[in-house]
Amino acid sequence: MRDILILLLILGFALAALRRPWIGVMGWTWISIMNPHRLTWRLEDLPVAALMAGCTLIGLTLTREKRQPFISPSVAVLLMFMIWMCITYPFSIFEDKSWEMFTRVMKIDFMILVALMLLRTRAHIQWLTWAIVFSIGFFGVKGGLFTIATGGNFRVWGPAESFIEGNNEIALAMIITIPLMRYLQLQLAPDKKWQRHAFTLAMLLTAAAAVGSHSRGALLAIAAMSGFLWLRSPNKLAGGIVMVVAAVGLVAFMPEQWSSRMHTIGEYQQDASAMGRINAWWMAWNLASDRFFGGGFQIYSLIVFQQYAPDPTDVHAAHSIYFQVLGEHGFVGLFLFLLLWFMVWRDGAWLRKHTQDLPEARWARDLGSMCQVALVGYLVGGAFLSLAYFDLPYNLLVLTALTRRWVAERAWLTEPADAPLIGNRSAKRVEAAT
């Protein structure tokens, strides 16, 4: 029954994308982030992502409701990063092994550009946020209930054969999603008490699931994200009390084995896993220093470590978005990667600055602020995880860039009533408000 339901939903999204390709963007986001077909018995090997992307692209060629995607400096930097990865690919140490990941990353980034072309209105932005929150929130609520039911003795894992399969990766995805849950909660009317309480419960369960992953990097990320979320909270006293009570309750609830694992954060010299990561980081640094274009994808092998790592026999994945990009695409690639997230952060700051006196754009201020909070979680937690190409953070770019365009197209709201309008800009703004 579950297989049939998910298949019908996928087919429904795909068929709808032919006529309304923006719906295909929602379907693609759902499939690429949540991987619902991995939760079935018979659909896990079907090319459902290719089906959704194909139908969306067909709809893109047929629709007139599309725009050029380069609406923010962050998008231009993303394109530069894509071009640089295309340049570095021929210089890969293992070109054949790199091809699969190279094509996967290019597909993800290309669909990000497609989303920027097709999503235009506030409703589109809201639906995309809902698609992200549902995709990861499902695992958050489920994982939180699992953590509570098992006393935190078992780890929370993500869908098999996906970017977020591991306990560390699914935890970071949940941490990124919690601020977006908060954004949706802020859009509810004050009289919607049950809905607001439901979001609070979902955020607490998702936080419990992240802690229940037993990921040390996730603990640091959730601490940083929560602190920044508190700073952006309109009611710091009530928010602070809720966060402190939740944190103390979660830590007290977790078993001794969890506490022992977390205590090793400050004793990394005696932890084999931590030292293995540092060994991988030195390998990436030495490789990038020796090879201008980096080593390409799939460089984590004994041959490479024997040449560049301090301990040539301790082979580990990068376990850091920064050293992952550095080792695979060199210092230029790392610069573009960091510049990309700086631009996303700046878009969030721009939204906060330009909407603070516009009550009708309060939602845009909330979204820009929460995207910044989510980005803090990603940048802190990503320092200890190889999750540089996962779709979810790049959707923060989509949300901030689209919202910035929405606000910029309404600059006339802050101008005098008799200010002249140029061309048909006012008509476009009215249209985009729907």
TrEMBL record:
Q: What is its main location?
A: membrane
- Top-level lineage group: Bacteria
Report domain DUF5935 positions: 1-185
Q: Which GO terms describe its molecular function?
A: ligase activity
Topology relative to the lipid bilayer, per the entry, is:
Multi-pass membrane protein
Q: Report the transmembrane regions from the record.
A: 46-63, 75-95, 101-120, 127-150, 170-186, 198-231, 237-254, 292-309, 321-345, 366-390
Q: Which UniProt keywords apply?
A: Ligase, Membrane, Transmembrane, Transmembrane helix
Q: Which residues form the O-antigen ligase-related domain?
A: 201-338
User: Where is the protein localized?
Assistant: Membrane
Q: What is this protein called?
A: O-glycosylation ligase, exosortase A system-associated
Whose protein is this, by species? Niveibacterium microcysteis
